[in-house]
Design a protein that fits this description.
single chain; alpha/beta; Rossmann fold; 7-stranded mixed β-sheet; 7 strands; Methyltransf_16; MT21D methyltransferase
């Protein structure tokens, strides 16, 4: 729903979704005119293909599915996309380092990463979330999207959207 607000112009922009799962977020971007690659593990490719096929009549851009395992080579996904979309990718401690490596490898100076997640308070979730944002801030600048800019009908106090950009390189001191 946030993408529909037009806060991020997606028409004819190259978009990569990480950890796409069902592909709903990436497919939505494609309905707004983006050229999208939804990525996830091999075992989710069939589901992604089915969902792309079932929604192709809504797509005004383009959408395809590809395998991408976090932490591995991203050469085939270069040059850096205009946008990287992530929805609910912060929940598994062992995946934090590979996810951060993939983000660093995929982002260019003008790439905008939109990360949406549900704040979970059970078990190790708060600790994993804290660690993720701590590690992320080594190389990236974060801007939390205020709740009043979320979709009016679907906003929730425990759903967060963060805009993430690479830190600008600073010249010699």
């Amino acid at each position: 729903k946030f993408l529909e607000t037009g806060a991020c112009p997606l028409a004819r922009r190259h978009v990569l979704e990480l950890g796409a799962g069902t592909g709903a977020v990436g497919i939505m971007a494609a309905t707004l005119g983006a050229i999208v690659t939804v990525t996830d593990l091999e075992e989710l490719q069939e589901l992604l293909m089915v969902n792309i096929e079932n929604n192709k009549h809504l797509v005004t851009g383009a959408v395809r599915a590809k395998v991408l395992k976090w932490g591995e080579d991203v050469t085939e996904f270069q040059p850096p996309p205009d946008y990287i979309l992530m929805a609910d990718c912060i929940y598994y401690e062992e995946s934090l380092e590979p996810l951060l490596k993939t983000l660093k490898d995929l982002t260019g100076p003008d790439t905008c990463v939109l990360c949406c997640y549900e704040q979970r308070t059970m078990g190790k979730n708060p600790e994993i979330e804290r660690k993720y944002f701590e590690l992320l801030q080594r190389d990236f600048e974060l801007e939390r999207i205020p709740l009043d800019r979320h979709d009016e009908e679907y906003r929730s106090e425990d759903i967060h959207i963060v805009s993430i950009h690479r830190k600008r390189a600073v010249g010699p001191q």
